[in-house]
Amino acid sequence: MAHPDLNLLVTLDVLLAEGSVARAAERLRLSPSAMSRALARLRETTGDPLLVRAGRGLVPTPRALELRERVGQLVQDGEAVLRPADALDLKRLVRTFTLRAREGFAETFGPKLIARARAAAPGVRLHFVQKPNKDNAPLRDGAVDLELGVVGSATGPELRAMTLFRDRFIGVVRKGHPLCRSEITPARYAAASHILLARRGLNKGGPIDEALQPLGLERNVVTIVASFSTALALARAADLIASVPEKLTASLRTGMVSFPLPVPTPEVTISLLWHPRMDADPAHRWLRGCVRDVCADPTAESSRDGKSLRA
């Protein structure tokens, strides 16, 4: 069965409103013959005469009277769908946004982000969820609105990214740790007891271990954990060193001693990721701006909103 021509809805709406082929043709800027052909198609499609002769004019059939209000509403709804979106009214916005990030983001940046969002849009709720892996599927399927992470080979090529800040790894120990009694050299740092951060518990080295190798040094790893918060909790309670991102864990390190690593390691760029289908969504764009401003780093070079860093 052929699909009906939905353009006929507009024609039917005007015909039923005017009750005249001539007036309807004038309103739609069609010739009377073109409007007559359109009425013939409508009669064939609906199986009803719709408008019948009564004296010198036309009157609607019962079927036409039944359709008049329904057709008018359908046309109005269609016009609303195709009209540009109304200006965003933050005070009336009611929406829950889900943000996915590793632990430390909500604790460090969450309070300012929540305060900023609620001041502008009281009906907005922020749902923070943990990021256990680098799988971007939650962004693709709409389960997550925004994600924080490092753009790399595992990042979906279609995703949009915006640089938020650059971070570096630092060493963190409890107050009174023996390491703090004298200069922290590469040798003393490597020989101390370390907590290795590795997702899924894999015993893999990283940039810190690579920086120690040319010096003939290797960290004395005594335990392996999967999260920054766990590493810091252990370091807070024992003579252990946690090597964690400085900015991302700022609020998790309260009351502890932090120090620059005694070997050079590369900085990491933390980016905000989202799916391109959300590019033009006004509320989503507003929230991206909030996150960007809260995480602003005056030394960071931000990409243009909506452009991939890997493009």
Structural description of this entry:
- With 311 residues, the chain is α/β, with parallel strands linked by helices.
- It folds into 3 domains: 8-82, Winged helix-like DNA-binding domain superfamily/Winged helix DNA-binding domain (Arc Repressor Mutant, subunit A), CATH 1.10.10.10; 90-167 and 268-294, Periplasmic binding protein-like II (D-Maltodextrin-Binding Protein, domain 2, 3-Layer(aba) Sandwich), CATH 3.40.190.10; 169-260, D-Maltodextrin-Binding Protein, domain 2 (3-Layer(aba) Sandwich), CATH 3.40.190.10.
- Helices cover 35% and strands 21% of the residues.
- The chain has helices spanning 8-18, 21-28, 32-46, 62-82, 105-120, 137-140, 186-191, 207-212, 228-237, 282-294; strands at 51-54, 57-60, 95-101, 124-130, 146-149, 160-167, 169-173, 193-197, 220-225, 241-245, 257-260, 268-274.
- Helix 8 (207-212) links the parallel strand 8 and strand 9 (220-225).
- The longest helix is centred in the N-terminal third of the chain and has 21 residues, at 62-82.
- It starts with 7 loop residues before the first helix and ends in a 17-residue tail after the last helix.
